[in-house]
């Protein structure tokens, strides 16, 4: 093994610690799923539209009343949908702050700072019975979403910057792996006999903030990103020390030289603002591809499965829907590492969802998160990442908020809509998304600039830089 390429204990600790933020993100996505009916009943009680006595009377009578299912009341449906979707609103708003937080005090201190949000969110949800559960849970989910919007950008940024070149590809999947493990854990502890019951569900939601406590204890032991220290702060000696901590005793000259060249390129190319990037024709094709990749991830319908799979399996006739949901989580994790009239069709439905999630985690899951960095150079990259993140979270919100209504409208055929959308995204990817493996930025850029008027682009690029300097 070549010097400087070994996986040291410090590097493993740093990657594990960062991935706790990803795990927390995944837990927050999946935790709202299993206890849906229980939480809906508590919402109904708090809103005064449902009671245990009314439900008992309804069950004992021939009158088909909606009182025996709190989740069918329009007020409960609205608050429940908002509980799911507000998470994405928080992430949508904070996705623009990833670069700012990461550059303010560094990647490590940035992750440490935002853990206050995660702990506060966990307390709001864990103590929701002390006031109005529907308000407390929605507030907690909003704050947790705000945390996850920043964390989902900081974690891949930090891991990508500390990973040795030989392992950047493998370690680049750590964020997505952490997310799907978090989803799986939330589904297991959400079982009725664990925490997904009438007594323990606030603790189930409150545990969303637990990884932040562990991460806060471990982050002070993690080295800062050498690239942040060298390129942004100009602290060459501290960058050298960080490299030694991460890679052991070796000659860091090659890595430092790579950072020096990267710093020179970054100094030459001014940062381009989000507005300038949106109106620019120079980067329009790259930006369109980046946004479409993130749209394809969310409008595949995968988060509808993660948010509502228990209800989906119940409607499909699966007798133990929570265990089917855990199966989705298990399949999800494994593959990251590498009609209802007939009862037997419920198992076809279950198998189809397992297969769907499997293929999602091979491609549409992880790829949109890191392809943006490959499509853009240093100047427009931060703005492009912010826009792509906002696009992802906005799409996530739309799915979370509208899926119950789409499901009520389309019934068993709800995923036909997603299949049609995926067909369109597949055609787009085949025709418009270039292969980036093994290519330099210049080679990738050449694909997008082919056939364009170079002089016009150069003039506009200079105008973009001038507007960024202003």
UniProtKB/TrEMBL annotation:
Protein name per the record: Solute carrier family 2, facilitated glucose transporter member 5
Cellular localization per UniProt: Cell membrane, Sarcolemma; Cell membrane
Recorded family membership: Belongs to the major facilitator superfamily. Sugar transporter (TC 2.A.1.1) family. Glucose transporter subfamily.
TM annotation in the entry: 77-100, 112-132, 138-159, 171-195, 344-362, 383-406, 412-431
Gene: SLC2A2
Domain Major facilitator superfamily (MFS) profile: start-end pairs: 14-437
Keyword Aminoacyl-tRNA synthetase: no
An individual GO BP term: D-glucose import
Protein's membrane topology: Multi-pass membrane protein
Presence of the UniProt keyword Iron in the record: no
């Amino acid at each position: 093994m070549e010097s400087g390429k070994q996986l040291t204990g410090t590097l493993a600790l740093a990657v594990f610690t960062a991935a706790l933020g990803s795990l927390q993100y995944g837990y927050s996505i999946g935790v709202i799923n299993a206890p849906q009916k229980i939480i809906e009943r508590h919402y109904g009680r708090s809103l005064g539209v449902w009671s245990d006595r009314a439900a008992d009377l309804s069950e004992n009578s021939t009158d088909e009343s909606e009182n025996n299912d709190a989740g069918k009341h329009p007020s409960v449906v609205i608050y429940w949908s908002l509980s799911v979707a507000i998470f994405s609103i928080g992430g949508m708003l904070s996705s623009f702050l990833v670069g700012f937080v990461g550059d303010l005090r560094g990647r490590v201190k940035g992750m440490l700072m935002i853990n206050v949000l995660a702990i506060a969110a966990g307390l709001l949800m864990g103590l929701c019975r002390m006031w109005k559960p529907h308000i407390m849970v929605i507030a907690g989910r909003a704050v947790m979403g705000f945390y996850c919007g920043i964390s989902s950008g900081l974690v891949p940024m930090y891991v990508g910057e500390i990973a040795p070149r030989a392992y950047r590809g493998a370690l680049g999947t750590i964020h997505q792996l952490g997310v799907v493990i978090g989803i799986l854990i939330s589904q297991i502890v959400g079982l009725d006999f664990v925490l997904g019951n009438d007594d323990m569900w606030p603790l189930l939601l409150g545990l969303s903030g637990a990884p932040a406590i562990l991460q806060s204890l471990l982050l002070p032991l993690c080295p800062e990103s050498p690239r942040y220290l060298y390129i942004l702060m100009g602290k060459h000696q501290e960058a050298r020390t960080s490299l030694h901590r991460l890679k052991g005793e070796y000659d860091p000259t090659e890595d430092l030289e790579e950072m020096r060249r990267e710093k020179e390129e970054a100094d030459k190319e001014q940062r381009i603002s989000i507005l300038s990037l949106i109106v620019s024709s120079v980067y329009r094709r790259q930006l369109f591809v980046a946004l479409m990749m993130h749209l394809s991830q969310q409008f595949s319908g995968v988060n509808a499965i993660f948010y509502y799979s228990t209800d989906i399996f119940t409607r499909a006739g699966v007798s133990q829907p929570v265990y089917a949901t855990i199966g989705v989580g298990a399949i999800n994790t494994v593959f990251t590492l590498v009609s209802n009239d007939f009862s037997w069709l419920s198992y076809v439905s279950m198998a189809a969802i397992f297969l769907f999630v499997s293929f999602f985690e091979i491609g549409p899951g992880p790829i949109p998160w890191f392809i943006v960095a490959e499509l853009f150079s240093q100047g427009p990259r931060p703005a492009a990442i912010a826009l792509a993140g906002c696009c992802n979270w906005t799409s996530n919100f739309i799915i979370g908020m509208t899926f119950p209504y789409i499901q009520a409208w389309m019934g068993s055929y709800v995923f036909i809509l997603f299949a049609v959308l995926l067909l369109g995204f597949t055609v787009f990817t085949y025709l418009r998304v270039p292969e980036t493996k093994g290519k330099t930025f210049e080679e990738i850029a050449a694909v997008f600039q082919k056939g364009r008027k170079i002089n016009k682009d150069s003039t506009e690029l200079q105008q973009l830089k001038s507007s960024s300097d202003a």
